[in-house]
Every structure is written in structure tokens, then in C-alpha cells.
Amino acid sequence: MIFQRFALGLVGGLVFALQAQATDITRVTSPSGVEAWLVEDHSIPFAAINLAFRGGASVDPEGQRGAINLMTHVLEEGAGEMDATEYASAVEALGARIGFDVGDDALTVSIRLLSETRDEGADLVNAALTEPRFDDAAVARVKGQVMAVIRAEENDPNAIAAKALAAAIWGDHPYGSSINGTADSVMPLSPDDLRAAKDRVLARDRVIVGAAGDIDAEELGLLIDRMLDGLPQTATAPLPAQATFAPQGGVMVIDWNSPQTVFAFAQPGVSLDDPDYFSAYLADHILGGGGFSSRLMEEIREKRGLTYGVSTALSNGVSGSSWRGGMAASNASAGEALALLRAEWAKMAEGGVTDQELADAKTYLTGEYPLRWDGNGKIAGILAGMQLIGLPIDYPDTRNAQIESVTAEDVARIAAEVLDPDRLQIVLVGQPEGVSP
Fold first, then answer.
1. Where is the Peptidase M16 C-terminal domain (predicted)?
2. Domain 250-372+392-430's class?
């Protein structure tokens, strides 16, 4: 779906999901020097290539929040001599798929090509990247779609909570605002503004490539250069600075006329390069990331029926990390649900986990990840995502061993160091009863 964030949930989807049979990753360098990671699979005449341009919506021009997002979704609305309809027809005629999306950390191009028409498909990708038309009618049409999303979010308590939490924890950093922008920032954007926005992110020095399927290293290198031919060497905007988690905890209540209260909460997280990252990941699975087996689900839903669901996750973007979660409860029970959330947060920090909880979490996390992704398209996306967030190329071969090496003492230590209910920044959207800061 368009207009969705890309990176904040990246680790949960990418770090723990690469197929077991897809671990033979080859590092490829194109003739012009662009690096790519490749998993070959010649069982069907099809290849998937994912291009990720670092920076994404975080390099929006000042005062033009939403420009990168709008520009991204106009890229496929015509290129070179082809208008939007002609471009779509050309892609379809090749049996190809070319999709554009953007998030906080990257603008992504997802490419699916049949082997017999690879070169022609690469030429269409190149046209969109180097010769986008930005026709007035196309810009107006996509702008209307973005504005519809912005208006819908203004009346969605989940979106309201997410935006308020992001603003509270990240402040003026791009992470602190929606990639969609606002009506005031999006409506004035012109085709010339979109051309300038394109040059801020689409450049050879920003590209990351993941590929999988019926293509070898030499063929991939040539195809990459064909797709990127004519693209500027350097982007016109610097990459964003690291984000700083701003608040020291507390409760923000946003009055909303609804029978239930939506919760969004976060505290400082654990970075991917922290040696205790996997200990924190296991702690999160047991606390709230493990679905119905998690402590929060057991205490708040199963025992008391206060919510349909509560979840947590370690959220690791390129520029910052948080430990976050969400749920919803009736206004009348919001205070009790909040007290239980804080109590379980403190219990994990003070008491760690049991041996059985840890064993169950390890069994689940090491057993399910090979099943999560299937197909070359998903593998190509994973390979690009691994590079974006800085994972080593041998990660799929070492991941399970790193999880198995974590002890209950490791989990207790990182939980005690990081988890603190007093540092939780909590946003409540509704008319909650029994809530105190």
C-alpha cells in the first residue's frame, strides 16, 4: 500500500525472516562500481531486484514535508515520451512489475522481470528514474490521493496517536512527522518542486541493491548499470543526522469522542549494533512481541479482557531506535490497562524471565523464521533491507546461533538496564478514565 512508513518496523520483518535456503548470498560489483547482494535461483525464468535509495522521506526540503513521498508516487506516472497510461502499458506488455514506495529511511523500487525481457524492463526503470515527466495532471491526481490519506489520518485515532507519539519522542527530526506531510506543506508543491526533491534522494551514491532469481553475477552487474545509467553520482541533500529520543516519560491525553481509548507508547530502545540486541529481542518477545504467548496479552487480555490485543516491538530505524507498542481499551478500563502495562514493564525490568519462557521464545524465533518469506521478490527486499540497516552479509548463517547463545541472565541484565516504566512516553487518544500522568 502506498504512503506507508518503511523503516520503523524494519527489523521485525527483515532481521528475523530470511529463508534458510537463501543464505548463499553473493556480493556483486557492477562494472561502474555499484555493489549488490544476490541469491541465484534458476528454477524459473524470473528475477527480482530491489533498489533502495538511502535517505528516503527524511531528506524532504525544509518547509516541504511530503515532497519526497509525493514525488515517489508520481515517478510511475509517465517517463520520457510515455505518459502514465503508456508507461503502465509498456510495463504490462513485458510481464514485468515496477513499483515505487518510500519511508523514513529509503525510497524503494521493487522490480520483477522475466528473463527474456530483462533488458527492456531495465530501460523502463531507467526512464522512470532519470526522465520522469511530472505532468501537471499526474501531479494533481496523485496529490489528491495524498490529501485523501492526510484527511483520513486526521479522523483516525490510531494515526493521531502514532503521530503524537512520533512528535513527542523525536521532536524536530524527520522521524517526528509523517512522511505524507500536511495539507499546508503538500498542496503548494509544484512539478518543479518534485524535480528538485528527486535530486535530493535519487543518486548513485545512495543506492543499495538486493536481487534474487534467474540471473547471475555478471548479468546483474550489467543490468544494474543499465537501470542507473544517467543518474547523478551524488544527491543534492545530506543524509539526516541521528535522532535523539527526547522525552523522559509521561502521559499525553488527546481528547477524542470515542467509546475506547487508543494507546501508543515508547521508550528508548536498543540499537542493532548493541552486543545485547538479541537479549533485548528475546525480552521483547516475552513481554509483548510474542502475540498470545506474551505477558502483556496474558495479563491484559486473557486474564481481564481489557483489550482485544496489545503488542510491543523493538523499532530500529537507520537514524534511531525505540522500544514501542500499542493497544486499545474501553474508556472505563483505560486506567486499569495502563496500570497493568506499567506493572509488567517494571516486572520484566526487575525480575527478568523464566527459563521456560526463554526456551519457548527461542524455539519459536529459531523455528518460524525460515517460513516467513518465500519467493524471489521477498528475498530481494530482505537483501536490500539488510544492507540498509547495516547487517553483515553472513547474518542468515549466524542468526540462530546468536539467539541460542542468549541466557536468562543476559535477558535480565538488558531488561534491567533499559526497561523503565517511568521512561515510557504514553499517548492516549480517547476519553480515558482513571488515568494519571
1. 189-364
2. alpha beta
